[in-house]
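It is worth pausing here to work through a concrete case rather than discussing structure prediction in the abstract. The textbook approach is simple: state the sequence, then state the predicted structure, then interpret. We follow exactly that order.
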Amino acid sequence: MAQIHHFEHGWLTPTFSYTLSVLGSLLGLVCAVRLRTAPSAGWRVWWLTLAAVAIGGTGIWTMHFVAMLGFSVVGMPIRYDVPVTALSALIAIGAVAIGLSIAARGTKVQGARLIIGGLFAGLGVAAMHFTGMYAMHLDGTIDYMTSRVVAAVAIAVVAATVALWLAMTVQRPLAIVASALVMGVAVNGMHFTGMSAMSVHPDPAATGASVTGANASTLLIPIGLTVIFGVLGLVYALMAAPTEEDRAAAAYLAARLERENDDDLYEPAPQQGPNGRRMPTGGAAWTFRDRAGQ
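Step two, the predicted structure:
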């Protein structure tokens, strides 16, 4: 059995992967707050998509790839199948989107919807992880310890359920930050539990020339740029979109303007007194008496 290193660069890769998972979770939770207060179906789809991209794409999948930069097998080159790696990203985003759409149905948070949504999202996250591992090519056979795989899947389901509950309940900034920190621990715990389940048995006849695909450093630049522009896009979307308070203020101002316009429309016409002088149109004009006519 080949020797495996999960932290080839020390604590650099796990620290960076945890930071990414917290950042993605933070942005996703803020999008989920907007999802709960969306004024229409179109806005709900918009915020659901952004939350799924933030949590599934940045918080889970990108974290997985960055953590894999610290993974190595002694004496074996590692390459990645690009289409399968991209598929794993789509699985993560789709799983989170399905889980959120189930949990966000209705006006109240219900345990049944959270459990079903967490099950879908958790199994999807686990599928993303092992699809990403399937994309890894090396001169050897990869085996998995069943008990640790089950533990990783269980962590993924529990973490996804807790993440959905937080997405549907937290609203205050401090609670959102604390929730993102907890979600980061859960996502990284699932990843490294799944990684600890694997073992590699080298192929004695392999020479290393048969390993095809892209290495991690080649994928790092496009993935890094995607994350940077994706995060900037999410931040811009959050800053540009009106909040519930903004919509309430706009509705209040619109009502004030409409009321003022109505008052102008029904303003009484100016009246003239017996001497031909223009009389005021205030309340006194409605009680004015022409003394000369008495």
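Step three, interpretation. The CA atoms of residues 31 and 50 lie 7 Å apart. The helical segments are 12-36, 41-68, 82-103, 111-134, 146-169, 173-196, 216-240, 244-265.
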